[in-house]
């Protein structure tokens, strides 16, 4: 979950707006109006992938490092919500319980669950998760790093409420400082982390369901932040891990996150370019999260709070694509959510960030699939309001670069361009049997409907440069 700013209901983003740092509260206008869109995540056929999925799961932060799900839960998610991906949480402490000793039984258990997603044709992004560094940093308050890699130098720590304040406890700050080697005394920790990722990638390099690897959840700089952290510290760290992974896996996509303190609220990122040593086109993805302060930590999406959050929407929509263009990478929204279904404006907030993602042509992973008021299953096992909202028609694989996608009043519109070398049809998930129209000349395009998967396949006219299809119930 996010490193949220405990500044009352307005959050860090609201504070930036009040300080006059943020842009005025205006609609951001057409996506990429100020420049070309970033490149796209693609599949083995060269099709543009739009990833819709859930984070699985808070329960994976516990001692076992495994989520609560079973095979039927995965099948239900794919059937009822149309998800084609999952951000699957794993933990360093479970992968490497002792320095240099890897728990392959744990990775076998992960592989068993990854196979459930493969059965549903879903893409898996393995996320090395951490919150508050690790459980040894502050009396079990965190998750992620093993005890042997938690060097606090004996400083004190008391878990805080709200939990994010625990990040600034002395022991937690020192654990991060030592991991990042700010004090010049523990370079071995980053080396071990890179070697650990190499082991994980080697284990899953030949697993077709694993699309790639999210290197670290919401990296936190300890006592260094923003431009003092992202450029000089986080960027070379990512390069070190990418180089290690590429020794064993040349094809997996690698997801790099900016520091959450700024990006979660829409402030600019100073993350530097991470080079991909693989042959051919780079496969690095910029993967920011979106947790506006006004709706997080029990906030609402109405009144003044909504106006502040709308400013953060505009900031995020401007600054995150700008960073992706600068880095030359695709973009993916790795975490978003944070509101309980009983919070004022929760449905409107969800519709608005979904529309933003469509407008930007990017995929997302919702936090989370855990039972509860902010998940997709309530305490009794039934759907929450988010279940239906996230079951949103979309083009999941597109036979060319996506130029526009929108969904409104039950109608999905998708536009793309023809480029050489892309195989396969455009695939659209739709919850019911659809009616489809196309701008391609009559008789030059075909479609097929898979009733079981709720997937519409469209083979466009190869002689037409641009295509738009409209799908209605």
What do you see in this structure?
GO terms for molecular function: hydrolase activity, hydrolyzing O-glycosyl compounds. The structure is a single chain. The chain is α/β, with parallel strands linked by helices and 473 residues long. The chain has 2 domains: 11-38 and 53-392, Glycosidases (TIM Barrel, Alpha-Beta Barrel); 396-473, Golgi alpha-mannosidase II (Immunoglobulin-like), CATH 2.60.40. It has helices spanning 11-18, 71-81, 92-95, 104-119, 170-179, 187-204, 230-246, 260-263, 303-327, 346-360, 385-390; strands at residues 48-49, 52-56, 85-90, 123-128, 210-214, 253-256, 284-286, 332-337, 363-367, 394-398, 402-408, 411-417, 426-429, 435-438, 446-450, 455-459, 466-472. The chain has an 8-stranded parallel sheet. Strands 1-10-13-16-15 form a 5-stranded antiparallel sheet, with no helix packed on it. Strands 11-12-17-14 form a 4-stranded antiparallel sheet. Residues 1-30 have low confidence and may be disordered.
Tally of strands: 17
Rg value: 22 Å
Largest sheet: 8 strands, parallel
CATH C-level of the largest domain: Alpha Beta
What labels would you give this structure?
alpha/beta; eight-stranded parallel β-sheet; 17 strands; 473 residues; Immunoglobulin-like; globular; disordered N terminus; 2 domains; 28% helix; TIM Barrel; five-stranded antiparallel β-sheet
SSE blueprint and pairings:
Blueprint: H1 11-18, E1 48-49, E2 52-56, H2 71-81, E3 85-90, H3 92-95, H4 104-119, E4 123-128, H5 170-179, H6 187-204, E5 210-214, H7 230-246, E6 253-256, H8 260-263, E7 284-286, H9 303-327, E8 332-337, H10 346-360, E9 363-367, H11 385-390, E10 394-398, E11 402-408, E12 411-417, E13 426-429, E14 435-438, E15 446-450, E16 455-459, E17 466-472
Parallel strand pairs: 2-3, 2-9, 3-4, 4-5, 5-6, 6-7, 8-9
Antiparallel strand pairs: 1-10, 10-13, 11-12, 12-17, 13-16, 14-17, 15-16
Domain Glycoside hydrolase family 5 C-terminal: 392-471
Protein name: Endoglycosylceramidase
Keywords: Glycosidase, Hydrolase
């Amino acid at each position: 979950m996010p490193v949220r700013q405990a500044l009352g209901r307005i959050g860090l983003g609201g504070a930036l707006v009040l300080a006059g740092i943020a842009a005025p509260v205006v609609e951001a206008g057409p996506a990429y109006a100020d420049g070309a869109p970033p490149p796209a995540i693609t599949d083995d056929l060269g099709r543009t992938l739009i990833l819709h999925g859930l984070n699985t799961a808070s329960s994976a932060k516990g001692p076992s490092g495994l989520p609560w799900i079973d095979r039927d839960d995965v099948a239900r998610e794919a059937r009822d919500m149309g998800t084609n991906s999952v951000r699957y949480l794993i933990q360093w402490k479970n992968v490497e319980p002792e320095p240099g000793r890897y728990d392959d039984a744990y990775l076998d258990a992960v592989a068993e669950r990854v196979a459930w997603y493969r059965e549903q044709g879903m893409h898996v992004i393995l996320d090395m998760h951490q919150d508050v560094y690790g459980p040894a940093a502050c009396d079990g308050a965190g998750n992620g790093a093993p005890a042997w890699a938690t060097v606090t130098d004996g400083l004190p720590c008391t878990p805080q409420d709200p939990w994010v304040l625990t990040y600034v406890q002395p022991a937690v700050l020192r654990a991060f400082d030592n991991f990042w080697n700010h004090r010049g005394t523990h370079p071995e920790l980053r080396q071990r982390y890179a070697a650990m990722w190499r082991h994980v990638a080697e284990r899953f390099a030949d697993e077709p369901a694993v699309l790639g690897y999210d290197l670290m959840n919401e990296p936190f700089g300890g006592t260094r932040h923003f431009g003092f952290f992202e450029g000089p510290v986080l960027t070379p760290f990512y390069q070190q891990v990418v180089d290690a992974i590429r020794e064993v896996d040349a094809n997996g996509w690698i997801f790099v996150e900016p520091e959450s303190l700024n990006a979660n609220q829409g402030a600019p990122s100073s993350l530097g370019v991470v080079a991909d040593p693989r042959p051919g086109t780079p496969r690095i993805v910029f993967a920011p999260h979106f947790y506006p302060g006004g709706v997080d930590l029990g906030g609402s999406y109405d009144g003044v709070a909504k106006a502040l959050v709308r400013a953060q929407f505009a900031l995020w929509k401007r600054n995150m694509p700008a960073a992706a263009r600068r880095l030359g990478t695709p973009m993916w929204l790795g975490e978003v959510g944070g509101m309980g279904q009983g919070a004022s404006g929760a449905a409107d907030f969800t519709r608005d960030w979904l529309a933003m993602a469509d407008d930007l042509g990017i995929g997302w992973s919702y936090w989370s699939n855990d039972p509860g008021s902010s998940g997709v299953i309530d305490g009794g096992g039934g759907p929450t309001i988010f279940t239906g909202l996230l079951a949103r028609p979309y083009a999941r694989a597109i036979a060319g670069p996506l130029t526009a996608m929108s969904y409104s009043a039950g109608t999905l519109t998708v536009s793309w361009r023809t480029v050489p070398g892309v195989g396969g049809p455009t695939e659209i998930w739709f919850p019911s049997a659809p009616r489809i129209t196309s701008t391609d000349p009559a008789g030059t395009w075909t479609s097929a409907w898979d009733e079981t998967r709720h997937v519409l396949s469209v083979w466009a006219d190869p002689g037409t440069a641009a295509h738009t299809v409209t799908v209605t119930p």
